Amino acid sequence: xxxxxxxxxxxxxxxLTLNRPxxxxxxxxxxxxxxxxxxxxxxxxxxxxxxxxxxxxxxxxQDLTDRAAAADLEGTLxxxxxxxxxxxxxxxxxxxxxxxGVAAGAGANLALAADVVIAAESATFIQAFARIGxxxxxGGTFIIPRAVGAARAMGMMLFAEPVTARQAADWGLxxxxxxxxxxxxxxxxxxxxxxxxxxxxxxxxxxAVEASFGNSLDxxxxxEARLQGQAGxxxxxxxxxxxxxxxRPARFSGQ
Length: 255
Ligand code: T3D
Known about the structure:
Number of helices: 10
Family: Belongs to the enoyl-CoA hydratase/isomerase family.
GO molecular function: isomerase activity
Protein name: 2-(1,2-epoxy-1,2-dihydrophenyl)acetyl-CoA isomerase
Shape: globular
Largest sheet: 6 strands, mixed
Helix content: 40-55%
Strand content: 15-25%
Bound molecules: ligand T3D
Keywords: Isomerase
CATH class of the largest domain: Alpha Beta
CATH architecture of the largest domain: Alpha-Beta Complex
Structural class: alpha/beta
Distance between the termini: 30 Å
């Protein structure tokens, strides 16, 4: 059982809730280990993972209460943050970050590591690091410039001010914004939708998009051909085409 997160199942959807609301779900060492464990041991019948926060915040980043004296940040990143982020990027199921409130520092970048980010209208994203004399980490300097370009990435990182959910969506940093009152139901509907989808194809889509930033066109076309070869041999492709021809919704197994 977990101390710092809650983990719940509802059909094919698993929800991981960061659960230290008294500190805006700040990331402790224990929380990183628990996230890593929950994400990397997902059972095969989970077909969508939602990560969200308890209370009014999503995640305030590194727990600063144990950082007053100089700490081994390099070691913490390598041994604790990296495995957590890699576990999310390697998750068998598509990952939705449901950003219910402020996402600051590594908390923002944890959200941005998800496949799809959906934020409540009142949520904000803060690259808070420079406020305390640090450098954005947890993948932020990789993901953010690719998503929004260097000018906006630098502005976010140097000024370290809140970017609203609406602004983040307009910039292409996140996928969607929902009104606060429609957030829970809207996220649940989207999670169910992904949980009924072609899970293996979703993984291949993630692989292709991720690889695209480092690939030449030739290499990317070759990767697409290989991944499509795989998808073309899947049960879900047969079902997708059959359902289309029979004019009915597809019933994907995720295989
Ligand atoms: O290993 C390493 O250290 C390297 C890795 C670094 C990664 C990082 O993430 S560095 C960046 C760390 N995070 C921050 O700098 C953000 C700090 N928090 C804030 O700026 C603000 O709290 C928020 C913008 C997130 C929210 O502001 P607000 O006004 O809505 O709430 P609040 O009153 O500031 O926070 C509520 C409580 O949570 C408060 O405690 P209190 O006064 O009720 O007892 C606050 O101290 C606590 N809290 C918020 N963030 C953290 C925290 N406690 C510990 N660590 C936090 N990160």
